[in-house]
Design goal:
abc type-2 transporter like fold, 5 strands, 8% strand, alpha/beta, single chain
C-alpha cells in the first residue's frame, strides 16, 4: 500500500504540473454537453420556401397562409400577395436561398369546390437528404390538414414531388462533401499548428528570433510551405469519394479548387495562430482538434441544419470557416453551382485568413521583442 500511495502521489503531482492539459480535458466535455444539448435536434424552423400560385384564388391564398403561419416555413419572393415564378425559384433553389418551392395549379380552387381530384407540386432541395425528408413531411401534413377543413377528399389529392440534386436521397451525397470540408480544415490546421511549437520544443525558436528574417515573412513562409501537402490531401479524398462512393461532381473542378485553396489558407493560418499560443506540440495538437473538430461538426451545417440552431449557437457558426466552405463544396459537387454564387463565402474566407495571419504575426513579433 505504501508503494501504491507513492505512485499515486507521483501521478497527481504530474497532473497538477500540467494545468493546461487539465483545462482542455475538463473544458471539452462541458463544451460537448452544451453544444450537443442545443444542436442535436432534427426539428427544422424558419425553412425558406417559395410559392408559385397559378390559382390566384381565395382558397389558394388560405393555403399559402396555412404554410406561412405554422412556424415551420417562411416565404421568399412573396410580396403584395404576388408569388414568384418557377424560373426565379429554380435559381433560388440552386444557390441555397430556399429549400423548397410549392406549385399551386390554376384549377386548384375550382376542383376543391367541386370535390374533384387536384394536384399540388413540391420541388425540394435533396442535397441534405434528412432535411428533405422532414420538409416533405411538414409540407404534406400542412396540405392534408388544409384540405380536410373543406371536405374529406384526401384520396383525391395528388402530391407531385420532385427531389433535385439527390433524387434517391442518399445520405452519402450529403455527408461525404461535409467530411471533406472537415478533414481539409483539420489537416491544414494540424500541419502548421505544430510548426512553431516544434521550434519551441527544440530550442531553435531562439535562432529564428535573432535571424534577419522579418516576423511576417516567417509566418507567411511557414503558412505557404504546407499548401501543396494540404492540396494533395484534398485531391486524394476527392478521388476516393468519386470512385469509391460514386459521389457526383457536377460543377467545375477549377471553381472548387480555387475556393479550396482559399479554405486551405484559412486552415493553415488558424494552425499558425494556435502554434504561437501553444507552449508545446501536445498542447498545439489538442487545441487544434478542439477548435476545428467539435465546432465544425456541430455548428457549421455539417450534420444539423443551421436553421435548427438557436440564435446563440447560430451566431458562433458565422466564425467557423467550415460553415462557408460547406456551402461551396456541396453547391459545386451536388448542384453544379458556378463561381458567381459563392463570391460572398470566398470573400469571408479571405478576410478570415488575413485576420488570422495578422494576429499570428503580431503575437510572434511580440514574443520576439521580449526575447531580445
Amino acid at each position: 500500500m505504501g508503494r501504491i500511495k507513492a505512485v499515486v502521489k507521483k501521478e497527481l503531482a504530474h497532473i497538477i504540473r500540467d494545468p493546461k492539459s487539465l483545462v482542455i480535458i475538463f473544458i471539452m466535455p462541458v463544451m460537448m454537453v452544451f453544444i450537443y444539448g442545443y444542436a442535436i435536434t432534427f426539428d427544422l424552423n424558419n425553412i425558406k420556401i417559395g410559392i408559385v400560385d397559378y390559382s390566384h384564388s381565395e382558397i389558394s391564398g388560405k393555403l399559402i397562409k396555412k404554410f406561412l403561419n405554422n412556424g415551420y416555413f417562411s416565404a421568399v419572393g412573396l410580396s403584395g400577395g404576388k408569388t414568384g415564378s418557377i424560373e426565379y425559384f429554380e435559381r433560388k433553389l440552386k444557390d441555397g436561398t430556399i429549400k423548397e418551392y410549392i406549385i399551386i395549379p390554376p384549377d386548384f380552387s375550382k376542383k376543391i369546390k367541386n370535390g374533384e381530384s387536384t394536384e399540388v407540386s413540391f420541388v425540394i432541395d435533396g442535397s441534405d437528404s434528412n432535411s428533405a425528408n422532414i420538409i416533405y413531411q411538414y409540407s404534406e401534413s400542412i396540405l392534408m390538414d388544409f384540405i380536410s377543413e373543406f371536405q374529406d377528399i384526401k384520396k383525391f389529392m395528388n402530391i407531385n414531388t420532385k427531389i433535385y440534386y439527390n433524387s434517391t436521397l442518399k445520405s452519402s451525397f450529403f455527408f461525404i462533401p461535409g467530411i471533406i470540408s472537415l478533414l481539409l480544415l483539420m489537416v491544414s490546421a494540424l500541419l502548421t499548428s505544430l510548426s512553431i511549437s516544434r521550434e519551441k520544443e527544440s530550442g531553435s525558436i531562439e535562432l529564428l528570433f535573432i535571424s534577419p528574417i522579418k516576423s511576417r515573412e516567417l509566418i507567411i513562409g511557414k503558412t505557404f510551405s504546407y499548401i501543396f501537402v494540404a492540396f494533395a490531401v484534398e485531391v486524394l479524398i476527392l478521388l476516393f469519394s468519386k470512385f469509391w462512393f460514386n459521389i457526383p461532381i457536377r460543377g467545375n473542378l477549377l471553381v472548387l479548387f480555387m475556393f479550396s485553396l482559399i479554405y486551405i489558407l484559412t486552415g493553415l493560418s488558424l494552425g499558425i495562430l494556435i502554434s504561437t499560443v501553444a507552449p508545446d506540440q501536445k498542447t498545439a495538437m489538442l487545441g487544434t482538434l478542439l477548435i476545428t473538430m467539435l465546432p465544425s461538426i456541430m455548428l457549421s451545417g455539417f450534420i444539423f441544419p443551421l436553421e435548427s440552431l438557436n440564435i446563440i449557437l447560430k451566431s458562433f457558426s458565422y466564425i467557423i470557416p467550415a460553415t462557408y466552405f460547406l456551402k461551396i463544396i456541396r453547391g459545386v459537387i451536388l448542384k453544379g453551382s458556378g463561381l458567381s454564387i459563392f463570391i460572398k463565402e470566398g470573400g469571408i474566407l479571405i478576410g478570415m485568413t488575413i485576420v488570422l495571419l495578422s494576429i499570428a504575426t503580431s503575437r510572434f513579433a511580440a514574443k520576439r521583442n521580449i526575447s531580445r
